[in-house]
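Any chance you could type out a protein's amino acid sequence plus the matching backbone structure tokens because I've never seen that pairing?

——
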Amino acid sequence: FFGSNPILLNSLDGLLAILLNGVIAINRQVKESRQASVKKAESALKRGISVSMMVEGIWNKTANVPLLDPWPGIYKIAIATNTPVYTITLYRREL
């Protein structure tokens, strides 16, 4: 999944990521785009392909809002395909 469409669609690396690596582009502001990405992910999982999604989307939106609210799509996908969800925690310590 990749939700930063200007970065993805305006570079050769981004276009190759879609064509060769199976990146699912999402316009997070458009409901139909989010729904289409869910269907694509469900299809991939049903074919045995792994899916990776960072459900919060971004870090440090502002100093008082370190994370956005999580998008619920990954949980809907997991339930629909009977697929476990594994969480990954990233930690950065200032030295």
Remarks:
- Helices lie at 5-9, 12-21, 31-46, 73-81.
- The first helix runs from residue 5 to 9.
